[in-house]
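Hey, resending since the last one bounced:
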Amino acid sequence: MIESPRFRRATTVLLGALLGFSLSRIGFTNYDELHKMFVFSDLRLLMVFAGAVGLSAIAYRLHPLGRAIPARGVDRSTVIGSIIFGLGWALSGACPGAALAQLGEGKLFAVFTLAGIVSGTLAYGPLNGRLLRWGTSSCG
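The structure tokens again:
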């Protein structure tokens, strides 16, 4: 396999563009479509999302790297983090990948979503170390 940095960058850009195009095409960058998914009035996006998660889980376990990592349980911090992620997704209408795709579509409100993602990520370390002390066992 080719291991040059240029090849890796080109592959990353190509796969990222393909992901962004796919997210845009199926409606994951449209707030109204996401709202329908979250209130269960249209299950099309939910089924696409569930299918992608299922296929990713299977591919991860079949890949040698995935088999080498022991399965971990879900602890309280994972549940809390998932709830925070879901609330942010429902309020902003975008997960991190969709926010980048929205930006690529020219939807400038995605800048605020990305600013929230970055500030939350940067704030987590100091906040967790001083106040929360949530476990990070499911992260590594």
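Residues 110-132 form the longest helix (23 residues).

Sorry for the duplicate.
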